[in-house]
Amino acid sequence: MVQSKNADPTALIFRTHRPGDMGFITYRHGVIYAQDHGLPANFERDVSRISADFLDTYDPIMERCWIAERDDKFIGSVALVKHKELENTALIRLLIVEREARGLGLGTKLVQQCIDFAREAGYKRIRLWTLTQLVSARRLYKNAGFQIIRTEPQESWGGMPKEEWELNF
């Protein structure tokens, strides 16, 4: 994305992914979720698989990754991908907001990017999953109109219960 000469250099920019972004997103997930939530190294491994799958099967008509930047610095990201098993269903993946950008509504803006794109692409619903301890993320999804459709135990990341959420259009 190109800014004009008169553009505010501190303004928030949303752009699509480019080479190197998916590796950086994986790295930031590994660091932030370990520090903030005590998630183990296998969480980063799983995020790297999600990132690799996105790159391997990327469909620019039906899928997108947004990178949020301020002052040319990464401050967050999210991806919307096709659900591999459910027709007309998208998945929100890889949502992360850097600490210095929290409380500014960036998470809401990133999720709204997904909702708007999903509607334009013709999806009938969006699903996502999160962990019950991620209170801010859960609040963000609820405020966007998502509803919990399933809660289940999971052992992979320290036994925190996993929730699946859905938004229908």
Automatic annotation (TrEMBL):
<protein>
    <recommendedName>
        <fullName>N-acetyltransferase domain-containing protein</fullName>
    </recommendedName>
</protein>
<keyword id="KW-0808">Transferase</keyword>
<dbReference type="InterPro" id="IPR016181">
    <property type="entry name" value="Acyl_CoA_acyltransferase"/>
</dbReference>
<dbReference type="InterPro" id="IPR000182">
    <property type="entry name" value="GNAT_dom"/>
</dbReference>
<dbReference type="GO" id="GO:0008080">
    <property type="term" value="F:N-acetyltransferase activity"/>
</dbReference>
<feature type="domain" description="N-acetyltransferase">
    <location>
        <begin position="22"/>
        <end position="169"/>
    </location>
</feature>
<dbReference type="Pfam" id="PF00583">
    <property type="entry name" value="Acetyltransf_1"/>
</dbReference>
<dbReference type="InterPro" id="IPR050769">
    <property type="entry name" value="NAT_camello-type"/>
</dbReference>
